[in-house]
Amino acid sequence: LGQFLESDNNRYLSWLHDISNQQYTQAHETLLDLARTETTFASKKKTLLSLSKLTALASDNQSPDMKERMDEIDDQLDLILHQEQLPPDSLQHLGMDTNNMSVLKPQEIIELYISEINAVATEYEFKKALDLLQYLDQEDDDIDINELRLHIWSKAVLRDNWKDNKASDPLDTIKDTIFFKTVDLAYNEGLDLTEYLPSVEEILQSEELGDLRNHPNFQFLIKAGYEHLQSVM
Amino acid sequence: SDSACNIEITDEDREKIEAIDWLVFDPKHRSEAVKQANAVMRGFIAVKKHEAAKQVFHKLPNDSIDIIYKIHHSTAGHRNLKPADENAIREYMCIKAYLDAVDSFNDWFSFFHHAKPQKPNLTVGASFTDKVAYEHRMKQFESELDRWRHNLTAQTKISKDRIYNLLLFTDGGWMVDLVQDSNEDEGRSLQLKRLRELHIPGLCFNLHHMLHSSGLYAECLQLADYIASERYLLYKEFNPENLKTLLRHLQDSSLQLLDENKDPLGYDLV
Description:
The complex is a heterodimer of chains A (233) and B (270). By secondary structure, chain A is an all-alpha fold. Chain A has helices at residues 2-6, 11-20, 24-37, 42-59, 64-84, 88-93, 106-114, 123-132, 145-157, 170-174, 178-188, 193-196, 200-204, 216-232. In chain A, helix 2 packs antiparallel against helix 3 and helix 7 runs antiparallel to helix 8 (123-132). Chain B has a domain at 1-79. Chain B has nine helices and no strands.
């Protein structure tokens, strides 16, 4: 029976057998494998991960490998939590709702948080997008983390009109922009800005910003903001 | 699974319950009354004397929390409540959530086990009139069974919500203080911790039993999501034995789903 259950088609059952036989580590590994390959339902992936965590805890196995797998489980559950917290509008745009979602990739969740579909995005959504960078697949050659990071900040810039400068003090103008509100929030929540915030040159060269890049008022405000940051950090 | 646990109220218990009467005469003592009542109820809940705990709860007038706030605002203005008062009020709400959850589970339990209509019998060699009478009773039975199922679904929903209300108690969990109190006595924090260890696994088992008996097997498996979650940390209250029991129960629910031609988590097979 054990061998029959180990065959690929029947692995979705074998963990039930393992629980009966108190083979908790075995059940935990199978459940984690099933979770890794689940892409159809986010809720199903979540329950597979949760069961994998509970069987691991029941196994009393404290090997370094187990510790590593438990970290993977918590990361994956955290990622699903970020997905569940997406605004309903963004999900609807994909034809999904909170009760019926497929498994999204971290870069897809990031995009949904920062794109124009999420019209009410605040600094909290941009901060979440930055948090999600840690879950990107490091081995995937198609993903350029630096590029994605610059993309998030460029989207933040584009949320505001930088062309008018009504206040006499530039710092008064920029403190209300989503870009600098996000910087502020990230800083206060302990994110390492030397790693997460692109340099002022990178921002000013971001192609996504289009003509705004060359607008003197924008350049002036961004530079003033960065100077201010350097003086307080 | 344990149902109504109402161990007898002794004379000593009665003294503790009635002592609260002396503290509620004067509104100025209300904050002390809530703290004393909480302490007495903690003791009762720890030994599952639910009826006794309920009697204490009813000794405190409904407006007690309002009174504590009013008195505080009239003397201290807009400053926050003292940590001990804030924690006592939250604990009182936690106890209420507990008593509601237990009551509502007991309601479900007796409805499920005792209110189910009995199928009529037809004896072998029954006469023609017996058979006609039997068919009549059978029809009655079926409509009663329908009504029972309908009410069971409603009762299951109420009881499920009440238990989840406790398990997912807002802002950090059931019987978890929100503010640090430097004058806190160690006895109290230890008791709160013990109550979590004692009741959280038990309530999860009751919830599973209820969902499983009502045929809601897929929901049984989703219980794992809440227990494993880092947000609620319920799994920390489970010792290894409890965890193994839980997994066995979840496995039972999965086997039922397989019988219904679903996958072990209740999704359609592809």
